[in-house]
Amino acid sequence: MELHAKPLTREAFEPFGDVIEVSDDAEKISINYGLTERFHALTSLDVTDEAGQGIISVFRSSPKACCEINDKKGQLTIDCMERHPLSSQAFYPLSANAYLVVVAPKGEFDVTKLQIFIAQGNQGVNYHKGTWHHYSLALGKTSDFLVVDRQGVGKNCDEVTLENTITIHFNLDNRNY
């Protein structure tokens, strides 16, 4: 199976979670005597099932060995997906590098419903509770991500191995990598 990545937009990603980015339509609050503009409540966390608590971590993700990039066009293969049934999970890039976001709807995993997005280095994502997603897919360079996640009792990661690998094609035109 071969799929093509499309640009990450709020509207296209809405069934799976929230896009975290500074934009003109975000609620803005002037703070710190007018020296800081706060882009307020860009997403909401959902981490308290089974007495869970929110934590912040940094994930350092290396590009997959099978990721090939030539002349800003690339491809890579995936063979697994995961979901977090007890919480949302937010990723925000600290390295300003483009990365891929691979998702499928909540519920029983259905490979035919996979969607792939290419995120710019100034866009984060917050996966809704139960949304199937691939782990961080850094492109071209090792990349750091600020991750807001759940800590607590209960199993909060289900994984599925795909019967067949999936090849993803992407274009980094006008993007950092």
Topology (SSEs and partners):
Blueprint: E1 2-4, E2 6-7, H1 10-13, E3 17-20, E4 28-31, E5 36-39, E6 53-61, E7 68-70, E8 73-83, E9 89-93, E10 99-104, E11 115-119, E12 124-127, E13 132-133, E14 137-138, E15 143-151, E16 158-171
Parallel strand pairs: 1-16, 2-11
Antiparallel strand pairs: 3-12, 4-5, 6-15, 7-8, 8-16, 9-12, 9-15, 10-11, 10-13, 10-14
Characterise the protein shown here.
The strands form 4 sheets. Strands 2, 10, 11, 13 and 14 form a 5-stranded mixed β-sheet that branches. This protein has a 5-stranded antiparallel β-sheet with strand order 3-12-9-15-6, with no helix packed on it. A 4-stranded mixed β-sheet has the order 1-16-8-7, with no helix packed on it. The mean pLDDT is 93. Helix content is 2%, strand content 49%. The radius of gyration is 16 Å and the shape is globular. By secondary structure, the protein is mostly beta strands. It has one domain: Ureidoglycolate hydrolase (Jelly Rolls), CATH 2.60.120.480.
In short:
With 177 residues, the chain is an all-beta fold. The chain has one helix and 16 strands. The longest helix has 4 residues, at 10-13.
Instruction: Characterize the overall form.
Output: globular
SSE sequence, one letter per element = EEHEEEEEEEEEEEEEE
Cα-based radius of gyration, to the nearest Å? 16 Å
Percentage of helical residues? under 10%
What number of structural domains do the residues give? Answer: 1
Ends: how far apart?
A: 25 Å
Q: Residue-averaged pLDDT, rounded? A: 93
CATH topology: Jelly Rolls
Which CATH class applies here? Mainly Beta
Sheet-strand content, in percent, reads: over 45%
Number of helices: 1
CATH architecture annotation name: Sandwich
Let me know the number of strands: 16
Counting helices, strands and paired strands, the structural category is mainly beta
The CATH homologous superfamily corresponds to Ureidoglycolate hydrolase
Largest sheet: 5 strands, mixed
Low-confidence stretches: none
